[in-house]
Specification:
Elements lengths: L2 H13 L4 H4 L1 H13 L8 E5 L5 H9 L4 E6 L2 H10 L6 E5 L13 E7 L8 H10 L1 E12 L5 H14 L13 H10 L3 E14 L2 H10 L11 H18 L1 E2 L2 E14 L2
Parallel strand pairs: 1-2, 1-4, 2-3, 4-5
Antiparallel strand pairs: 5-8, 6-8, 7-8
Helix pairs in contact: 3-4, 7-10
Family: Belongs to the methyltransferase superfamily.
Organism: Thermoflavimicrobium dichotomicum
Protein name: Malonyl-[acyl-carrier protein] O-methyltransferase
Length: 269
């Protein structure tokens, strides 16, 4: 993932700030599950949150760890502004706009918890970044995250593959490359973390049609495609994909899409 692509991603999330909370149904469920995985403590902890977005998970952290200090980081400035506005009464949060892969964390470290909801899939160099984060964990500190697995939007991938083959277009990835749970666990272990564990879940959301589904993905800033077709070809492909999707992935109230959810945990000895 190039610097140019990172800037594009930040722009997408900035543009999604007004629509994110309304459409982030799965991300909200993930946040609620993630906070339950954090070991409870009455101590004054230092918590690093990566990808705070509009503050959905940050708010849960403030409620669960009211005595703790939270450093909340996000690459999208408008998202951070929204989170800051939501949590303006909280005195124990420091918001930082920046790319966690490039940020100097030494001035904030060490951390008792490093947490992230639905963000680590965007890391450019995943092993290197997890190693970097492991270094700023306190002894016995925890890294606990949620992310999306490779079977996310498997229905959409299936339809794109079929239509690209039918139309003679090159096969292209139409969602972010996503790692399996075992891959993430291996990265955790290579970073020196112990007690590495994971949870795998599938959630199925329903939408009136494929167009509404794709619009909802865009509304949370998560659109991604490596499509290099001409505009006319892209429009033709997308139109046929939406029609086929509506036909073969029907439910009573429209269509469905699968979200493959992963939770990864590890502790620094």
């Amino acid at each position: 993932m190039s610097l140019l692509l990172k800037k594009k991603i930040a722009k997408q999330f900035n543009q999604a700030v007004a629509t994110y909370d309304r459409h982030a149904l799965v991300q909200r469920k993930m946040a609620e599950q993630l906070v339950k995985l954090l070991p409870r403590s009455e101590e004054k902890l230092r918590i690093l949150e990566i990808g705070c977005g509009t503050g959905i998970f940050t708010h849960l952290l403030v409620q669960a760890f009211s005595n703790s200090t939270i450093v909340a980081v996000d690459i999208a400035e408008e998202m951070v502004n929204k989170a800051r506005s939501l949590l303006n009464q909280a005195k124990n949060i420091q918001f930082v706009v920046g790319d966690i892969e490039a940020l100097d964390l030494s001035k904030f470290a060490p951390f008792d918890f490093i947490v992230s909801n639905a963000t680590i899939q965007w890391f450019q160099d995943k092993p290197k970044t997890i190693q970097k984060l492991s270094r700023v964990l306190s002894p016995n500190g925890w890294m606990i995250t949620s992310t999306f697995g490779p079977q996310t939007f498997r229905e959409l991938s299936d339809v794109f593959r079929r239509k690209e083959e039918e139309l003679g277009f090159p096969s292209t990835l139409h969602h972010l490359p996503l790692l399996a749970l075992d891959d993430w666990k291996q990265i955790w272990k290579q970073a020196g973390l112990e007690n590495v564990d994971g949870i795998e879940q599938f959630h199925r959301l329903e939408y009136p049609d494929c167009y509404t589904f794709l619009k909802a993905v865009k509304a949370v800033g998560a659109s991604y495609s490596e499509n290099r077709l001409r505009l006319s070809q892209s429009r033709k492909l997308l139109g046929q994909v939406m029609r086929m999707y509506d036909q073969i992935y029907q439910v009573a109230n429209g269509v469905y899409a699968t979200y493959h959810i992963l939770y990864v945990t590890g502790q620094k000895e």
